[in-house]
Design brief:
This protein is an alpha/beta fold. The chain has 20 helices and 12 strands. The chain folds into 4 domains: 120 residues, Response regulator (Rossmann fold); 174 residues, P-loop containing nucleotide triphosphate hydrolases (Rossmann fold, 3-Layer(aba) Sandwich), CATH 3.40.50; 70 residues, Helicase, Ruva Protein, domain 3; 52 residues, Arc Repressor Mutant, subunit A, CATH 1.10.10.60. The strands form 3 sheets. The chain has a 5-stranded parallel sheet with strand order 2-1-3-4-5, with helices on both faces. Strands 7-8-11-6-12 form a 5-stranded parallel sheet. A hairpin with an 8-residue loop joins strand 9 and strand 10.
Amino acid sequence: MAQFKVLIVEDEANARAGLAELVASWGYRTETASDGINGFDMVQRWSPDIVVTDLMMPRMDGLQLLDRISELPHPIAVVMVTAHGAVESAVQAMRMGAYDYLSKPIDPARLKSILRSAGEQISDSPVPRPIAAETQDRLGPLVGSSPQMQAIFRTIERIASTNVSVLITGESGTGKELAARALHQLSGRRHKPFVAVNCAAIPETLIESEIFGHERGAFTGAQERRAGCFELAEEGTLLLDEIGEMPAPTQAKLLRVLEDHKLRRLGAREETTINVRVIAATNKDPQAAVAAGELRGDLYYRLNVFHIVMPSLRDHAPDIPLIANTMVEEMNARHGTSVPGISPALMSRLEAYSWPGNARELRNTIERAVILAGTERLNVAHLPVNFGEPMPAAAARKGEPQPATLTSAPAADSHNLVQVSVGTTVDEAEKQLILKTLASTRNNKTRAAEILGISSKTLQNKLKEYANDQPATAG
């Protein structure tokens, strides 16, 4: 029931407050309005599932409100509350599309039954619900009108007010942190801290201290007591990004913290009670990570109460114009520019590109273009040279980075080709691919990891492995 929103429209204050309290006690989210005009305004802003409205009200009565609601493109169940014996009004309301009616004084058992059946009907409706205006405002830069993104927004709207753990997956650059921030902004924790930590960016020797904190003298170099990310996020939200890169011992401690809501700083004798909502994110397939032993199965199931999959940009390409224009507005505010928009020719190029780096790559491209344009409309001239095209052979021989595209280099350019002979082991082929990619990015490990589709930590481990495989030189 908790996912359904019920709007109470009643002009009598005590009756309104009492009815809202009763409905909330059954697990529904409730809001109130004092008359039909305020009620319809709340319908547009809050997008309730069910409206329980009195019939007789000043300014706009219940039947007028029902008539306005019936014009909306999405289903809302309207329950009409009528005076005792007002049979004609109840019949008229049903003919106008009301879901059901109640006579005063309201019978709580009948109301509860009506709300339950109305919720079941809404769940079975094939018509998708719109995103409420307050939700859209707090989604920040996370935008999109495609079915994929609208489904994600509805999920965020539905679960934000709960304290359940959420696992967000998707390729690098798809906006996993933006989704986590939207969950925080739509929750009751939005005025408390949002703390994000990248598990792949912290050395294994320090990750427990960073997450759980430590006492003075807990280890060499611990000069003072330090709060970890959990304590910094107290009463707020903690995002554990790249959760699959967290060492196994730390995963075991994290699982206990999630189950007991208590943690022990390194070197501490006593536990500390915490109140933090945890959101985890990864660019890996979590089930494959569990099978490979990279992610504990019990931790995965504990985090995966709700699973949000962020689609790659190429999978919701119709959203590119909306996303790009939103980014232009953001960059104008950030850099003090006044770019008026994007030319049709440039937009066509943006829509035709595959965006292997997803929204992050689009953001970088738009930011560069806005800075170059200043006050001009963005056009093709503001794109990087050879945008979306194979790198010319001469440039590749100079060690220039590969463009952000999956298109192969020309066959004549052997510098950027990985040639694998029959009989080559998979490990050796992987090694050649990693080293060639790293060379093409001028040893930029972060960019190489993005191109290869692996985490920076995995790349670092592979390079250490290759270094250890080198034969020792004679002294």
